[in-house]
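[scheduler] slot 2 assigned
[scheduler] job type: sequence-to-structure, two independent chains
[scheduler] chain ordering preserved from manifest
[runner] begin chain α
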Amino acid sequence: MSLASIQHEICDLSLPVKIFVPLTFISWQLIALSEHTGMQMILFAMRSTPESYRSLHVFYTNDCLSDFIEFTMKSSVADFSARMDGYVLSGVDALIKQKLSKSRFIHSALMLTSLIEEASPCPVVQLTYVNFETNVMIPYWMLIKGWPLSKFCCPSNIGTCMEVQLCLTAWE
């Protein structure tokens, strides 16, 4: 069987008419390919949305592949594939990307804080918000220009997360 005919058969599977073609057909093709090339195959097919008609399908041409997953993942192939199916359906990757971007944002804010500490002639032991000008700005030679909020206050007294983000991004 030529590569073009294999691609043609695979392309036919994406047609709406053949949406209910069982994955066993693909498994047979993988068995034939494995016998022809001597390569071992493993296939995990799972839904991308909860509304999909198909359920989870796992296929492997050799039990060594199943053993490998059990040894490396410390769980059976069925458990591993069920977890992978749950991960794909849950949309966790978008949540992880959001958390990573927040952690990068906080990391950059910490870097900015360390640069400010390096610029000050002596370390600030305690930040006093009452009479800030006389207690902090004059002794530590600090001047704050363009403070984004209406009043200068302790970060724990800032009311909303939006105001905190505004303070952190004000000088970027």
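[runner] end chain α
[runner] begin chain β
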Amino acid sequence: STDDTHNDSGNRAGETSERTASPINTGVSQESVTDDFDQKVQKVESTSGASNVSNESTEDEVKQKPNEDKGVTLLYTGMMYHEKKEVTESITKWLTTFSVVRDLKALQSYLENEHPEAEKDGPIVPAFKYNEPDGILQLCLQDTPSLESGWTVYPDQSPMQIRQYVVDKFIDNPMCSSIHISVYAKPGIAKDPLHCPIELTGINLSKIIYIDRTPPPSSMSQLQFYRDPQNSILQTDAVSLISSSAINIE
């Protein structure tokens, strides 16, 4: 009938309304889900930030590590020595060398084997440090002699620098960590001894060393002795022996 049909439609509408109005209960509120999501986001951001800080810290440590490891604490020794290279009537030449090493005995042994005639009477600068990691020691001529003095001091390179890493790398070859200076004297003109100051910079010692040389003889007879003292001594002894024995050498 019309009434029954109307009642059935009403019942169905009521059931549909009840189902629509009644949400499914999952046991978790929307606020809880939102809070949990926010916490996870904050945790990820925190972890990412910590990671960035850690990476930056590690990079800083790597950058600083060479300064901490590098040998500003290593000790070095400098030594000056001279070799006579040329003796003539017009000029006398020496090669003055300043070497920096970590083992002075090794340098002395090297000179005995490779440069036995070197005059090892120059100044020694013991136990110094470079001011900076991979530092540079520089030799600075303070007062070069005038031409009128008969002396000339001429560096073989400019600037005169010895780098720390070169000393460390070529431990067995001190020539790689050496500075060479040519010293010239004119016989008869250079009458006063040479006393040429050189300041050392870039190391922890405030130091001035000197190139000291005596002037060459001015006469030919003195020059012969100066050039080869051993041979001149033998010649002098032979003349004395002949004279004392009254031997006629004609």
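[runner] end chain β
[qc] chain β: Strands lie at 76-87, 92-101, 124-128, 136-141, 151-155, 160-163, 178-185, 194-201, 207-213.
[scheduler] slot 2 released
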